[in-house]
TrEMBL record:
It comes from Agromyces aureus. Residues 101-125 have a biased composition (Basic and acidic residues). The lineage of its organism: Bacteria, Bacillati, Actinomycetota, Actinomycetes, Micrococcales. Gene3D superfamilies: 3.30.1320.10. GO terms for cellular component: cytoplasm; small ribosomal subunit. GO terms for molecular function: structural constituent of ribosome. Residues 101-137 are annotated as: Disordered. GO terms for biological process: translation. Belongs to the bacterial ribosomal protein bS16 family. It comes from the Bacteria. This is Small ribosomal subunit protein bS16. The gene is rpsP. HAMAP family: Ribosomal_bS16 (MF_00385).
Length: 137
């Protein structure tokens, strides 16, 4: 059985995203897969690439052949270099900068007012009523 590591297309018409999958070479592009080992979102800036390195190394070691696109992704993540024996293989994937944390402006009035806490005597009354009903029985 010839096994390939390839991209499975998902998403909308002009907004594709892909899963990096291991599949039999005879199956359809979006057909049945053996295992999903990563994700690739090319439309984001920078492109989102996530690969399970351990599983990619396993499938490459047992003879799975990556397509050209997947091979390029594996080179970016450093997995292809590790497979070929390069001990200094490093990921060159760019990571998106995290969004700054939201800080409320103290000068402006808050739009929502905090709700006032309701007193808890109703709960005490319910306990007293429950005790009275158990005493009668």
């Amino acid at each position: 059985m010839a096994v390939k590591i390839r991209l499975k297309r998902l998403g909308k018409i002009r907004a594709p995203y892909y899963r990096i999958v291991v599949a039999d070479s005879r199956t359809k592009r979006d057909g049945r897969v053996i295992e999903e080992i990563g994700k690739y979102h090319p439309t984001e800036t920078p492109s989102f690439i996530q690969v399970d390195s351990e599983r990619a190394q396993y499938w490459l070691s047992v003879g799975a052949q990556p397509t050209e696109q997947v091979e390029a992704i594996l080179k970016l993540t450093g997995d292809w270099g590790k497979f070929k024996g390069d001990k200094n293989a490093v990921s060159t994937v760019q990571v998106r900068e995290p969004k700054p944390a939201f800080v409320a402006d103290e000068k402006k009035k808050p739009v929502l007012k905090p709700k006032a806490e309701k007193p808890a005597p109703k709960a005490e009354e319910a306990e007293v009523a429950a005790d009275a009903s158990t005493d009668e029985a």
